[in-house]
Amino acid sequence: MVPIFFFSAYVAGKESEAVKGLGTVLDEKIPIESVDLPQNSYIFDHEGRLISEITSKQQNRTYTHYNEIPDVVKTLFIASEDQRFFDHIGFDAAGMLRAVFINARSQEVEQGGSTITQQLARNVYLTHERSYNRKLSELLYSYQLEKNFTKEQILKDYLNTIYFGNGTYGIGTAATSYFNRQLQELHLAELVFISAIPNNPSLYDPIKNFENTKERQERLLKLLFENGIISQKEMEESMNYPITLSKKERVDFHPDYVTFVHQELKQLIAESEGYAKKLQNANDNEQINNELSNRIDHVISQGIIVHTGMDAALQNKLVTAIEKHLPFNEIQGAAAVIDHQSHKIVALSGGKDYEKHAFNRAFQAYRQPGSAIKPLLDFAPYIDLTGATVNSKIDAGAFCKNNYCPKNYSGKNYGMVSLETALKYSYNTAAVRMLDKIGIEKGFSYLKPFGFSSITKDDVQKLATAIGGFTYGVSPLELTSAYTSFGNDGNYYENHAIIKVTDLTGKTLYEWKDKPVRVWKESTNDQMRSLLASVVKSGTGQKATISSDYIGGKTGTSNDYNDLWFVGLTDKYTAGVWVGKDKNGSIRNVYDQGPQMLIWRDTLK
Prior knowledge:
Layout: H1 2-18, H2 22-29, E1 41-44, E2 50-54, H3 71-81, H4 93-106, H5 116-125, H6 132-148, H7 151-161, H8 171-179, H9 188-195, H10 210-226, H11 232-240, H12 255-272, H13 275-281, H14 285-301, E3 304-308, H15 312-325, E4 331-339, E5 344-349, H16 361-364, H17 374-386, E6 393-395, E7 416-418, H18 419-424, H19 428-438, H20 440-445, H21 476-483, E8 491-492, E9 498-503, E10 508-511, E11 517-518, H22 522-538, E12 551-557, E13 563-570, E14 573-581, H23 588-591, H24 595-604
Parallel strand pairs: 1-3
Antiparallel strand pairs: 1-2, 3-9, 4-5, 4-14, 6-7, 8-11, 9-10, 12-13, 13-14
């Protein structure tokens, strides 16, 4: 028996070493290092004005720090919800025992006996299921909260977590939501009024059940008086104080622009955190896209400020111009305006009567560019490679190669003309000859820096692209962005709506790190600016004329008049406008009016 005894003792010793204390097990199973509450995020325009609030996980919450919460609010919630808050270890045994007896008598879970800490645990980590299993979990989470945080931290997080009805979370948000003022600006009566809501947000909904909320407010004022927190005079004055609600609507302006900002934020985070490279190299993009979406949701839930380049005046002018010049049924329009000096997208229109997150034609519609592609694909590369000038001659007569025989718009042949004449009157055969001479692939190599996303391998094989005959086409934002190179001496800079993303304290989290790319020589750019100016001065773009030190641009019309374009620039801005039908169809009836040029003119004049 002696060997057996010693062997058993040895095994028992090893087992005892493996036994862990309750605290260690809870630290492993319920690690709580911080209480992360979803907060609102914000989008600002270039002047620092708020244009859109983003609520995370459908929780409208503006975080309020402990020293920003009036003492009377802290005291009131302790008095009404958890009088032994500063004494217990996360749960109140006496309160729980009382709840057990009541529940046993009714055979239902009618009372929970929850402390403020338990309510915080439930709101942040658990569900509101009324079961003993959830209650046990609640106790364990409460114990961990009390072990890791001070009472002040727990109370602060609780007051930022509780629900105040109508999508409003947290005491600070309730103040701005119901009275449109900061928490510290409220009268005692107003503070107690909003404090009455969380006990039962439906019953005490101040909008639907104002009288119920007022009755509970008066009961809470009496409680404060009975506990010696306020005087009788303060109680009576507060009971008689007029409560006037001033419901604050969530700020959400300029849906065209804001929709793009959401898209660009995804792109910025993807590039900054390596998701973009993973997507390029992965076989299973769905999983990485899900990871990226979760990451974006997390970033937004932490509370961020997205600083943009939006110019509210230009944005309003653009939207107004599109509505004014496109009163026709089924005919839509889209446009982009870029400050090519700062490389900021300052205005976007996704279409008439645009609604947030709907199909945004400015960056999601890919349309045939027609002759608007000629300066980028034909003229600039031709001048750059051959040294031609605005006065150099090109044949605008009949052209036919490999059964491709394009015609000029008028149906006429013009013989030898200057490059200036060829562009300002948009002769197709001249443009096709230029691309044929330098080679299609060489011409397309000049488009690579612009990042046109829908160019196909077939496009690089056919001469029809010289006059806009693409498989899918380009978006208004892509084409406008490419034209900014004419405003930057032949250099191309990526253009963005987002300048930077910061946290709520102003610390920069994300910003673009783009570098310029030289597309063509500066001398080529000088020739192109002269050519583009002639289009507006005496060519097809005259309706776009405005008073400016410089103005140049190019019109474009696709086959059967399905698409009308004008893309042009001043010394400061580059803007592009597309007009057409969502489902291809001729708009020949509005061609002579030149609505695309009128929209451009009215936006930038």
